[in-house]
From TrEMBL:
Residues 547-583 form the RHS protein conserved region domain. This is RHS element protein. Residues 29-148 form the Teneurin-like YD-shell domain. Keywords: Repeat. It comes from Escherichia coli.
Length: 795
């Protein structure tokens, strides 16, 4: 049992074989039932509803029944690969190559995704059809297997016409850290680091935009934004921390955004205070957000949130004293104070209708929202109807990974004859991605691109470019120009791939004004000069761009957009579940980001959340979790404490105290090695070979490294020994060569014990402590000079 400082008790009961059979927290109990083979065969949630499981003779799951009765079945081949899955009428077949790599799938006989690999076995292409379009993702790698580029394409499958493409490239430093990314049609974004990878700043092209100051524990203390980043920065955010390491304050050089944070003994965030108002948070015994109290001059409002035992919203008894509803047994909310809801057999929301309470005078017909999905349970069509006529319609397009690539929206408008009908031409929006983060939003008039805090979903920089400016920046490469103008009939010529490569390299050297001797010799062989080719290079045009900085709360929800001169261009206010309460937008900036990983769709009121759609009014998702119970027992829930927990992928909740570190790089390394040592009276040395495991924030899997180290000794002592050594370091796991200096003390006859402390020469903040035990005869106090060779595979 665990008893928290406020007296709440969490308890787990076990059977005779040590398996957990029930957990109780705050008076709510979940239980698990096992068969004779020790396999889970039933789960009972807090509402008393059951989810059941069946297995074959090889312990493979063959059937699962959900809390709502949804049934899924699984079939395997002789080698254990999944070959068929069934989900309430959807039959999916899985196909593999001779290396057991998945190659394609079909759903109810229709082709779905297709995977392609290179000779290394690395995934190079994945494609499918979405809403009649062929959508593909293409990957590129370096010789170490690291991702160097990702390109998304959308084509008309009948004509092959390329309708949209978006490409992002990545580069790595000598330590193996991804420190440079080039977004589509933007200058490179370079992350400046110190030591073993701590973030110190950011540049867009050659322009510094961000600077970070950190304390001795490498926590961010000051963040400066603007082309004059530093002491004269237009934006300067100062952060402080409690002795327990919790965020204590964030103060800006504009006082209106100052925030102070209060915590209780349980580690719950209970208060956020600002110049205009204070919000106080109350929690249930299970840690769920139970109430929000807002205090301001002449204002004192308390908003309660009630849920059933499984976490589904209920009418709050304080606001609805006549309600007798105590639980939604199937986790499907049928109605609330605003709407009536309907679901299909997969648990997907299909219809939502305005709820007009009895006795209320009806002034208009109800509006009904309709939702339609594809075979992967992704929303592909939405419409809102009133008086039997559509008010708005929208269609959504996805890539094979489930990322939304485009949306088309038709709105009701008056035509030339005076009739109201849906627009003939839709509003078209394209999307571009870097991994799981939306980085580009392209409309008919503008392109908006977002740079995020590394490793997180907190937006940092907003860059907007008008399409007219982008068109001015379009130019032909040197190879393209020579090919197009290379024939007298105007039809152009086609150069060999090697010649195109040489011309591309030459153009890059000409633009950098650093033409190599190799290129000069090649041109001379062709009877050409650098000056002749330089005159053929089309000039570069730098488009005008509007750059803003995102000022976010502790979770990464945007509160304001700050211009480079320090003025607020947009600001918004939200409740704890991401509903927008107020907005000031004098420059009509498009700012769709809400809670981390979410983008607001104005046409439906929903927030697209990578793998699902989130309804902020309900504080939950409209479809079940695609990863099932791995994301939690209630398949619809958004984290029930959204103050410090979030779900940026629409899959599972993450704990967050400070938005720039929830998914930080590794913060240390544990290693074990075998060493041999020999010393004379004043000098000697030791060598070791070992494996290191990195400790990562928020991840169960570790980075893994192998290394060899050699040290020279100088000091007092002598002997010979062999030992097994365990080390702890504050360094990131990085490939390459490092140098360190320090001291070692050891000794023993027959047995051997040694303690070593070394500091990285290039990063004095990074130190390593080692303890070794083994066999030998020695006694020594030595100084060390070490050199380490390390190769890492970063998770």
């Amino acid at each position: 049992a665990v008893i928290t400082p406020d007296g709440n008790r969490s308890e787990t009961q076990y059977d005779a074989w040590g398996k957990a059979v029930s957990t109780t927290q705050g008076g709510l109990t979940r239980s698990m039932e096992y068969d004779a083979a020790g396999r889970v065969i039933s789960l009972t949630n807090e509402n008393g509803s059951h989810s059941d499981f069946s297995y074959d003779a090889l312990d493979r799951l063959v059937q699962q029944g959900g809390f709502d009765g949804r049934t899924q079945r699984y079939h395997y081949d002789l080698t254990g690969k999944l070959t068929q899955s069934e989900d309430e009428g959807l039959v999916t077949l899985w196909y593999y190559d001779e290396s057991d790599r998945i190659t394609h799938r079909t759903v109810n006989g229709e082709p779905a995704e297709q995977w392609q690999y290179d000779d290394h076995g690395w995934l190079t292409d994945i494609s499918h059809l979405s809403e009649g379009h062929r959508v593909a993702v293409h990957y590129g790698y370096d010789d170490k297997g690291r991702l160097t580029g990702e390109r998304q394409t959308v084509e008309n499958p009948e004509t092959g016409e390329l309708l949209w493409q978006h490409e992002t490239t990545h580069a790595y430093n000598e330590q193996g850290l991804a420190n440079r990314v080039t977004p589509d049609s933007l200058p490179p974004v370079e992350w400046l680091t110190y030591g073993s990878g701590y973030l110190a700043g950011m540049k867009l092209g050659d322009t510094p935009l961000l600077e970070y100051t950190r304390d001795r524990m490498h926590r961010e203390t000051v963040r400066s934004f603007g082309s004059m980043a530093g002491s004269n920065a237009a934006y300067k955010l100062t952060s402080t921390y409690t002795p327990a390491g919790q965020l204590q304050s964030q103060h800006l050089n504009s006082l209106v955004y100052d925030r102070d944070y209060g915590w209780n003994d349980n580690g719950d965030l209970v208060r956020i205070s600002g110049p205009r108002q204070t919000r106080e948070y109350g929690y249930s015994a299970t840690g769920r957000l139970e109430s929000v109290r807002t205090l301001a001059p002449d204002l004192d409002i308390r908003i309660p949130y009630a849920t059933d035992p499984a976490g589904n919203r209920l009418p709050d008894p304080e606001l609805h004293p006549d309600s007798t509803l105590t639980a939604w047994p199937d986790n499907r909310i049928a109605e609330d104070a605003h709407y009536v809801y309907h679901y299909d057999e997969y648990g997907r929301l299909t219809e939502k209708t305005d709820l007009i309470p009895a006795g209320v005078i009806r002034t208009d017909d109800e509006r009904t929202h309709h939702y339609h999905y594809d075979s992967q349970h992704r929303l592909v069509f939405y419409t809102r109807i009133q008086h039997g006529e559509p008010l708005v319609e929208s269609r959504y397009l996805y890539d094979p990974l489930g990322r939304r690539m485009a949306k088309r929206v038709w709105r009701r408008e008056r035509d030339l004859t005076g009739w109201m009908s849906l627009s003939r031409k839709p509003e078209m929006t394209w999307y571009g991605w870097d991994g799981d983060r939306l980085t580009t939003v392209q409309t008919d008039t503008t392109r908006i691109q977002t740079v995020y805090q590394p490793g997180s979903f907190a937006p940092l920089i907003r860059i907007e470019t008008d399409n007219g400016e982008r068109e001015k920046a379009q130019r032909r490469s040197l190879a393209e120009k020579l090919q197009q103008e290379g024939s007298e009939d105007g039809h152009g010529v086609v150069f060999p791939a090697e010649l195109v490569r040489l011309l591309d390299r030459l153009e890059e050297e000409i633009r950098a004004d650093r033409v190599s001797s190799e290129s000069r010799a090649w041109l001379a062989q062709c009877g050409l000069t650098v000056e002749q080719l330089a005159r053929q290079v089309e000039p570069e045009y730098t488009p005008a761009r509007k750059v803003h900085f995102y000022h976010c709360d502790h979770r990464g929800l945007p509160l304001a957009l700050i211009s480079e001169d320090g003025n607020t261009a947009w600001r918004g206010e939200y409740d704890e579940w991401g509903n927008q309460l107020n907005e000031e937008n004098p420059y009509y900036l498009h700012q769709p980001y809400r809670l981390p990983g979410q983008q607001h769709d104005e046409e439906s009121g929903l927030y697209y959340n990578r793998n699902r759609y989130y309804d902020p009014l309900q504080g939950r998702y409209i479809t079940q979790d695609p990863i099932g119970l791995a994301g939690g027992w209630n398949l619809y829930n958004y984290p029930l404490n959204p103050i410090i927990r979030m779900d940026p992928l629409g899959l599972y909740n993450l704990y967050q105290l400070l938005y720039d570190v929830w998914h930080d790089d590794s913060y240390g390394t544990s290693s074990i090695d075998i060493t041999g040592s020999g010393d004379l009276i004043s000098l000697g040395g030791h060598a070791g070979l070992g494996v290191a495991f990195a400790k990562k924030k928020g991840e169960m899997l570790s980075d893994i490294c192998i290394y060899a180290t050699a040290c020279g000794h100088a000091g007092i002592g002598g002997g010979i020994n062999a030992a097994i050594t365990y080390s702890e370091t504050k360094s990131l796991p990085t490939s390459g060569v490092s140098n360190s200096v320090g001291v070692t003390v050891g000794g023993g006859v027959g047995g051997h014990f040694a303690y070593t402390y070394v500091v990285d020469v290039d990063n004095p903040e990074s130190s390593t402590e080692s303890v070794g035990i083994g066999a030998g005869v020695d006694a020594s106090v030595m100084t060390l000079a070490c050199r380490t060779w390390q190769e890492c595979w970063v998770n």
